[in-house]
TrEMBL record:
Coiled coil: none annotated. GO terms for biological process: methylation; RNA processing. SUPFAM superfamilies: alpha/beta knot (SSF75217), L30e-like (SSF55315). This is RNA methyltransferase, TrmH family. Pfam families: MRM3-like_sub_bind, SpoU_methylase. It comes from Dethiosulfatibacter aminovorans DSM 17477. It comes from the Bacteria. One of its GO terms (molecular function) is RNA methyltransferase activity. Residues 7-89 form the MRM3-like substrate binding domain.
Length: 256
């Protein structure tokens, strides 16, 4: 049993609280029984699992190669949740390149999104509606932020992530490969319901406050809005993305 806060595994987990170290080490944290179980059963990406001594789950037993028991107070010091289930895993990031995006006919491009909960919602919805590639640019919250990982649940294991160093260059690459670029905006040229988006598509979702940037709007083929019949002026970014993914996915499915 791990009883020291100076244990190298405990120190590693603490280091992964920051994006800088997640990027440097290529690792991140997944916490919670259901989430860790998804990684353990569906991937080979787990470095190791830590289980609090008071954890009631019997799914993970002590294994000197993978699973390690941790003293209760030590585990509490590395938990990122208020009601911890006493299980977390350190997970390896999957490497993706721009060519990997082409495996999915429906792609989500995230422009400077800031909220980790919104990011997690979008990842989960992308998985639900078969948009298995997601692009983030420099202004975005880290997709491996612990809150994002919790919000996305097991969808993190099925959606590929690509960091766009140059947003316009990435969009131009996708255009050349036959994708239509559709930016969701408040004051679009048309409503989503009126579009023909049955082919390979990229849905662009913008920042919570300012929306899609002007340069990305200019690079888009279509700027569209979601028709709202109530009095709200706008939608949460995660909600808007989910509606778009549902509509685009179903239209593409109908055309198959």
């Amino acid at each position: 049993m791990i009883k020291s806060a100076d244990n190298k595994k405990i120190k590693l987990v603490r280091s992964l609280f920051t994006k800088k170290n997640r990027d440097k080490l290529g690792l991140y944290i997944a916490e919670g029984e259901t989430l860790v179980d998804e990684y353990a059963s569906g991937t080979d990406l787990i470095e190791f699992i830590l289980v609090s001594e008071d954890c009631k789950s019997q799914k993970f037993v002590s294994d000197e190669d993978l699973v390690f028991s941790v003293e209760k107070k030590i585990f509490k010091s590395i938990s990122n949740t208020s009601n911890s289930q006493g299980i977390l895993a350190v997970v390896r990031k999957r490497e993706s390149n721009i060519e990997d995006l082409l495996r999915s006919n429906l792609i989500v491009f995230i422009d400077a999104l800031q909220d980790p909960g919104n990011m997690g919602t979008i990842i989960r919805s992308a998985d639900a509606f078969n948009a298995l590639a997601l692009v983030v640019n420099k202004g975005c919250v880290d997709v491996y932020n612990p809150k994002t990982v919790r919000s996305a649940m097991g969808s993190m294991t099925r959606v590929s992530f690509y960091n766009a160093g140059d947003s316009i260059e990435t969009l131009e690459f996708l255009k050349e490969k036959g994708y239509g670029i559709y930016s969701a905006v408040v004051d679009g040229d048309s409503y989503m319901e009126d579009l023909d988006y049955s082919g390979k598509s990229v849905i662009v979702i913008g920042n919570e406050g300012i929306g899609v940037s002007d340069e990305i709007k200019e690079a888009s083929d279509v700027k569209f809005s979601i028709r709202m019949t109530g009095k709200a002026e706008s939608l949460n970014a995660g909600v808007a993305a989910s509606i778009c993914l549902y509509k685009f996915s179903n239209k593409m499915f109908e055309k198959q």
